[in-house]
Specification:
Layout (H helix, E strand, L loop, with lengths): L1 E4 L2 H4 L2 H23 L12 E3 L4 H14 L5 E9 L16 E9 L3 E4 L2 E4 L11 E2 L2 H11 L3 E6 L7 H11 L3 E3 L2 H10 L4 E10 L10 H18 L6
Parallel strand pairs: 1-2, 1-3, 3-10, 4-8, 8-9
Antiparallel strand pairs: 3-9, 4-7, 4-10, 5-6
Helix pairs in contact: 2-7, 3-6
């Protein structure tokens, strides 16, 4: 299993807690082995989070580096996201700042041509695929059940939506609920290399007018880290 986040802040302080969890898992496994009178597989050898870079290009380059070194059975992308306010459009349950979600599908939402009549994406132009790119459906559903959080659609952008007009346009065009700068790119790469992935996010802000965004970065980082630790402790991700 490969744990990845885009920015250092998203993984800050997580390593010692992951090591503690791993030590507890090893102790529990040893107890099971002793009780069974035999040897059991140790499972994951490392739960160190890796920072792959912010944005589509950086995240794919960073992840490619790790996938060349070791092909994991699962990539877990975790981090923060913005949420499209309900009045701006989008599909799916409304989320608030601090809420956690799983992203089930993601798309490249601003790759294309902006023109006087609106926007035409590069898929419509016949140049490239823009999605949706799907996370592992079984593991995504299982993770959402463990955490009691929704599965939503994501939009991946190069320029975040810090005006109401852009937020409305992206939400309505993509039919997404959350916005990130890496999700679809990571999902695209994982699909190309046949590596299952899931995407875990916590809302740090509302998109649109930045002054009304309700920014809460540190609590969102805490929320996504707690959710990740709960998932790892549950064992649900080892079933994939």
């Amino acid at each position: 299993m490969l744990l990845v986040c885009a920015a250092e802040v998203e993984g800050r302080g997580l390593r010692p807690r992951l090591r503690q969890l791993r030590q507890q898992q090893r102790s529990d496994q040893q107890d099971r082995e002793d009780a069974a009178g035999g040897d059991a597989p140790m499972g994951e050898s490392s739960l160190e989070p890796r920072v792959i870079g912010v944005g589509k290009v950086a995240s794919v380059v960073g992840l490619s580096h790790h996938l060349r070194a070791r092909r994991p059975r699962l990539v877990v992308l975790f981090g923060i996201c913005g949420v499209y306010p309900g009045q701006h459009g989008g599909v799916g349950p409304t989320l608030e700042v601090g809420d956690v979600c799983l992203v089930g599908t993601d798309r490249l939402a601003d790759e294309g041509v902006a023109h006087e009549q609106g926007f035409t994406d590069i898929g419509q132009l016949g140049f490239a695929e823009t999605g949706p790119f799907t996370a592992d459906p079984g593991l995504t559903a299982a993770a959402a059940e463990v955490l009691a959080v929704p599965v939503v659609a994501g939009a991946t952008v190069s320029t975040c939506s810090a005006t109401d007009s852009r937020s409305r346009a992206l939400a309505r065009r993509s039919q997404a609920r959350v916005e990130t700068m890496e999700g679809a790119a990571v999902a695209y790469l994982c699909r190309a290399l046949d590596v299952p992935m899931i995407q875990l996010r916590a809302v740090s802000n509302r998109t649109g007018d930045r002054a009304r965004g309700g920014w809460s970065l540190d609590p969102a980082v805490t929320a996504v880290q707690e959710a990740l630790l709960k998932l790892l402790a549950s064992g649900v991700l080892r079933r994939g």
